[in-house]
User: Fold this.
Amino acid sequence: MMSDAARLTALRQEMAAKGYDAFLVPLADAHQGEYIAPCDKRLKWLTGFTGSAGIGLVRAHDAAIFVDGRYTVQVAREVDLKTFSHQHLHNNPPAKWLRANAGKGECIAYDPWLHTPAQVKALETEVTAVGAKLIAVEQNPIDTIWHDRPARPMADVIAYPEEMAGESAPERRQRIGKIVSDAGADRLVLTLPDNMAWLMNVRGGDVAYNPMPQGFIILAANGKADWFIDDTKLARARTDINLEGVTVHAPGTFLTTLADYANTHETIWIDGNWCPAICAQTVVRAGGTVHDAPDPVLRAKAHKNTAEMSAMRAANARDSVAWVKFLHWLEGNAASRANAGNPITELEAADAILGYRKEANQFMEPSFESISATDGNAALCHYAPTKDAQASVGADSTYLLDSGGQYLDGTTDTTRSVPIGKISDEYRDRYTRVLKGHIALAQLRFPKGTKGHHIDAVARIPLWQAGLDYDHGTGHGVGVCLSVHEGPQRIGKAINDVELSAGMTITNEPGYYEADKFGIRIENLCEIVEGEDGFLELNDLTLVPIDTRPIDFSMLTKAEVDWLNAYHARVRAELMPQVNGADADWLTRATEPV
Assistant:
């Protein structure tokens, strides 16, 4: 096995042979999904970095790795920062770094399968400004030197039940095809796995935590589709999948087919923020026209129909039962085991909730790697324990679990923060402020036309009043047995032009993080519903007790206490028929009015 230094040397030799002065190594695949297969983890192979967002840049005599604020500690642990300088992904992105460091005449290379047109445009603007040039490679140089690269995933594709989808696949293709036609385009290119799974009413398992297959689709305005996917993935369920109007092709023919359509001067719809740059480049070279606009499947998928929302409610209720069992187990064992010298480890806790989920009907897999974190580890927003690097829950610890499940009928995402033993005044204050922010958003009613950035401050005000804040979004969409982070809607500080509307899902997850001490987040998944007067509000899908022990009730208003009691009354009423014995006793205690 090559060492990190040997890999970097081999890459530089390959770059020199090709005439590249610099090469970009993003944490991305050809599908621009949130999670990628082992064979596509080029940044991890090169640098050792295992986070979920980042990009490397290698030159002959220097190298840099760009990650955001979530990974400041992690990048120092995993990457040799004597070799790779650490840069902030947003404050000093690769394009800005290249403008400051690239020289005139330098050749900056990138893989057009791994960058979107929008990313390429940003790079090109800065690179050409200093007289350097940006070029697309035909063969990724890392693939040439990665001799033990894992094989591409080949998980079986399954048909998704139409009664859960609420619509047949041909109906969906016709509906999206009409949007394509109305926009004046001839065809739409789809590369996001969750969009393709939704459109075809299928699910898969090519990538962990994402029950969807990888592939490519070219959808015509008349609703017919070319689906580029390995036929062996379809072998078991081909007769169950509605392929009306669909032609299946080998993945390797995707670009040639796209070029054939473009060669007849067609207008091809390509989302410049998500499709690989090579798609647009292929269309232009073949004489076609690119219609660059947001993928229409994104918004169609975001608005759940009656069947989808009913399925999501059922899945989240079952997942909430798993949480009740877990929280009962944690409360009954954390302090006693710590005092006995056999503390619960972070991985053990993550495994425990997974075990309770496996008891539920239709459970498939986790929806993401659980953030099971105690004390200072919880201050790292996207921390994940490993066998060799984890902490234990002490007798006087604070613990945070952000965890979710993929069920056939829906996807879940919940966070709870739990004190073990003594509760410091600081933790109590911060916990109460986070809870106040959560309640404020939960109680909010807002008019149609409201966008996520319009209401983000509502959840932050209790923290802002104390000069505090958190460095992540307040809410994101969640799919139906699809991606746990689903757009295009979100609640955050950044401007988002998507209006929140009934039928969307959104999380409510303010938090607070004190470095090396603790982290707090209270997260519920919600559906956006419309009231009789036309105003919108959030209805909780997550039905998990919120720990009342760390609350400073002197900081809560009567309306906030009323909301908490009403929420807990609903939790008890809806979950009690699904639990029994000691779990039912615990649920009763955890939902007592305060």
